[in-house]
Each structure stands twice: as structure tokens, then as C-alpha cells.
Design brief:
With 139 residues, the protein is an alpha+beta fold. The protein is built from three helices and six strands, in the order ααβαβββββ. The protein has helices spanning 18-31, 34-38, 56-67, and strands spanning 41-47, 72-83, 86-98, 104-117, 123-132, 136-137. Strands 1, 2, 3, 4, 5 and 6 form a six-stranded mixed β-sheet that branches. β4 (104-117) and β5 (123-132) form a beta hairpin. The longest helix is centred in the N-terminal third of the chain and has 14 residues, at 18-31.
């Protein structure tokens, strides 16, 4: 379960502590702040979260729109490997949100993420690849 972690909104850092990194990712996602969430990604990072490969402004725009209704994320770390300035992590996740009709929806799946530590020492997402199960309508 995530704990409240203080994140610098100008220079968020996923850290090299894998458990803390997961907590930061969850807390920023659950904040509903898509612009802050996008700052957890390198400028050239690829996100497949939308179902297609997005980078740069297109990725940020998608995060802003997707996180606006404040979906709730729970994520459990399944594995983590760190080699120098590269980290490969896997998580299982549950996202509770609403669809266009206002119905509650649950999205479950697994995600493989690659993070890189930059020259400034910050760990940022380089590539995320969630694999989602079909969404479940809850009501």
C-alpha cells in the first residue's frame, strides 16, 4: 500500500529504492495531476499506457486527460532488476475509474517498466508497457 511521500513537483524522482519508487508512482498517479505524472517520464520516454506508443506532448496530453477524473491505482511490485543506471521492474495493477457513461470500471493487468538514471541522478521512466485485461464494469 502506498504511503504519502513528498514529491518535488518541479523535479520528481522515482529513486533507486524500488519500494519507494512504486509508492511515488502510485501517489503521483492517484493525485490526478497528469502534468506532474508526466514529469516522472524522460522527455523521450515511450508510454504504451494509452494502448499505443506515445511520447512527448502527446503522452503528456493523454496523461492529463486520463488522470483528470482521478482514477485510483493500486500496484504491487513483482520483480525488480537494477544494472547500473538502468532498472527493469514489473508490477501487477488495479485501476478503478469511470467510463464515458459514468459507470465504474476496473482495469487490471501487468506492467513492465524500464527506468534510467539521468546525469542529474534522478530515476525517470524510459518505457512503460502495461498489458491490460478486458475492463470490468462494476455497476
Amino acid at each position: 500500500m502506498s504511503t504519502a511521500i513528498r514529491v518535488d513537483p518541479d523535479f520528481p524522482d522515482l529513486t533507486d529504492d524500488i519500494d519507494t519508487q512504486n509508492d511515488i508512482f502510485i501517489d503521483v498517479f492517484n493525485s490526478g495531476d497528469g502534468e506532474l505524472f508526466d514529469k516522472l517520464y524522460r522527455p523521450d520516454a515511450i508510454s504504451n499506457f494509452s494502448g499505443g506508443q506515445l511520447t512527448g506532448e502527446a503522452r503528456k496530453k493523454w496523461f492529463v486527460e486520463f488522470l483528470a477524473p482521478k482514477p485510483h491505482l493500486e500496484a504491487t511490485l513483482t520483480h525488480a532488476y537494477v544494472a547500473g543506471d538502468v532498472s527493469l521492474i514489473g508490477v501487477t495493477f488495479i485501476i478503478d475509474t469511470t467510463n464515458e457513461e459514468g459507470k465504474k470500471v476496473r482495469i487490471t493487468g501487468r506492467c513492465t517498466d524500464v527506468l534510467r538514471r539521468g546525469e542529474d541522478g534522478r530515476w525517470l521512466m524510459a518505457c512503460d508497457r502495461p498489458v491490460m485485461d478486458p475492463p470490468q464494469i462494476l455497476d
